[in-house]
Amino acid sequence: GPVIEPNTTVTNGEADPHSWPWQVSLQYEKDGEYIHTCGGSLIHRFWVLTAAHCFLSCRKYRIVLGEHDLSVDEGVEKDISVNPDDIHIHVNWTHGNLSLGNDIALIKLPVKTQLTDQIQLACLPNAGQRLAVAYECFITGWGRRTPGVSEPVSVSDKLQQAQLTFETQNACSREKWWGSYIKDTMICAGNETKSSCLGDSGGPLNCRRPPDGKWLVHGITSFFSSNGCNTEKKPTVFTRVSAHIDWIDDIIASN
């Protein structure tokens, strides 16, 4: 697990610095400075996992590892420029149609990541592995940005975490919930407070496995209701990582 254990008593608020050491900030260049746009997870010394909808082809991106406070240089961060050819978006992703699924992308880093106390690799679930209600899940990020909207709904300089309740597929695909928007390749998680606003697109849904307490990245934050991320019966929707393990393995093996 992480060198600094996540403080799970914080169910909605600031994370302990560097307690989610696989969390990355994806940033794009605007007027000579970089602006945080999405979260992501470091899953391999050369690879970051994030959402497909985070990318616009005209933008220049960088990854920041070991980040906690976006406004302060703590001296442990690593900024890495991303080559456009190293952004691998799922072939069946359709821009602007989140409900079709496949909202997943991998970024190959140009240099091998040096792991530190603040920069660690995420663990992924096995292919097909399902979440159960017993899992304890946290969304982490600096603030939710809606796809296609440049201004955040809620944003923080310091990494935030919020505990979310896992919802079954059956509950989430009920007519008054998400209905047919929800595919088997997705996970729903939400709660009754505003805290699910704190996650970023592309960032992880971190879930702790009951028997051994190991943290696994089960989801990639994909979408929430256009009425706001705490809308009743509209839990946050994540790309289910365990549905895409073969795709992840194939991309890494062939690049």
UniProtKB/TrEMBL annotation:
PROSITE patterns associated with the record? TRYPSIN_DOM, TRYPSIN_HIS, TRYPSIN_SER
**Peptidase S1 domain segment(s):** 10-253
State the Gene Ontology terms under molecular function: serine-type endopeptidase activity
SUPFAM superfamilies on file: Trypsin-like serine proteases
One GO cellular component this record assigns the protein to is:
extracellular space
Cross-referenced InterPro entries? Peptidase_S1_Elastase_sf (IPR050850), Peptidase_S1_PA (IPR009003), Peptidase_S1_PA_chymotrypsin (IPR043504), Peptidase_S1A (IPR001314), Trypsin_dom (IPR001254), TRYPSIN_HIS (IPR018114), TRYPSIN_SER (IPR033116)
Q: Name one Pfam family in it.
A: Trypsin
Tell me the superkingdom of the source: Eukaryota
What keywords sit in the KW lines? Disulfide bond, Hydrolase, Protease, Serine protease, Signal
The alphabetized list of GO BP terms reads:
proteolysis
**Protein name (record):** Peptidase S1 domain-containing protein
What organism does the record attribute this protein to? Leptobrachium leishanense (Leishan spiny toad)
